[in-house]
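Retro notes, item 3 of 5
We never archived the inputs for the coenzyme A complex last cycle. Fixing that now. Sequence and ligand:
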Amino acid sequence: MENFLQTIKTEAKKNPKKIAFPDFAEARVAAAIAQIKSEGIAIPVEPVIDPKKYSARLAEIRGISLQEAEEKLKDPYYFATMMLEAGEVDSVICGPNGTSRERILPALQILKSQHVSAFFFMVLPKTVDEDAANGGILLFADCAVNIDPTAQQLAEIAIDTADSAKKFGIDPKVAMLSFSTAGSSNDPHAIKMREAAKIAKTMRPDLEIDGEMQVDAALIDSIAELKDPGSKIAGHANVLIFPNLEAGNIGYKLVERLAGAKAVGPILQGLSKPLNEVSRGCSIEDIVNLTAITQLL
Ligand SMILES: CC(C)(COP(=O)(O)OP(=O)(O)OC[C@H]1O[C@@H](n2cnc3c(N)ncnc32)[C@H](O)[C@@H]1OP(=O)(O)O)[C@@H](O)C(=O)NCCC(=O)NCCS
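Structure as it came back at the time:
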């Protein structure tokens, strides 16, 4: 568990970049910044809000008046996102103040380059059965942004999460999760995940993606042999794509709380520049880990 996160920190330290923290003075952020500075992981920057500075550019991007832009730029998340857009910093960590929507929306409006989604690295403890652990580091998506994605959006989430896995040296084997395996149900929900797998395979034949499949068939060899013997992914999946946000959010928290996994994220993908957010319940360690990962995106 520690090795993966340690490697990420070591990589980040090789080229520490400027990162803005809109919630600079928040107690956990302040403590994390002290650690980030002492370890040399990144160069933390405190945004000093001057709404006039980016108002013309924001007005242009959003097609709004200068006055409306200035009003928005009083919000630290809009201001920090515009610092990133302008190239004054290399990345941003929003939170833990504000709601999820307040933290994410400026990025969706200003930096989206394609469909945006979020994954978690689930770093499993050694106590998890080796057969199920599939290397010990799994990626779960989407666990934070898309409430009820379409088959096309699920295909894009699968592709982006596979590419994110590769960025961190993990060879992705992607399972589109359902309550059905290989056509055992023809309910529209199961068909949606089957369709998503088909779209993803057509879009990116170079990636290993399969589904629909149940999570036990995705993870465990002996079950895969019974339920989906023809699949190369079943039994070996390390990237799990959930059908909707309820499943994704509940799924990662179950593995975190009951199996003792370390959940690192959410890590946003599909933005033109790296921006991530920490939630109200985050720890200092969460902020430090997410900062290191954000440096490498
Ligand atoms: C992310 C979220 C805030 C977006 O809200 P929304 O009401 O769908 O946003 P809107 O429809 O007002 O869209 C706002 C902008 O974001 C864009 N957007 C929304 N979702 C997007 C996505 N997944 N990818 C790319 N852009 C997206 C829209 O296209 C729109 O852009 P535009 O103004 O340039 O046209 C919403 O989906 C949400 O609340 N998700 C769940 C967050 C959450 O609670 N997570 C759990 C805790 S971790």
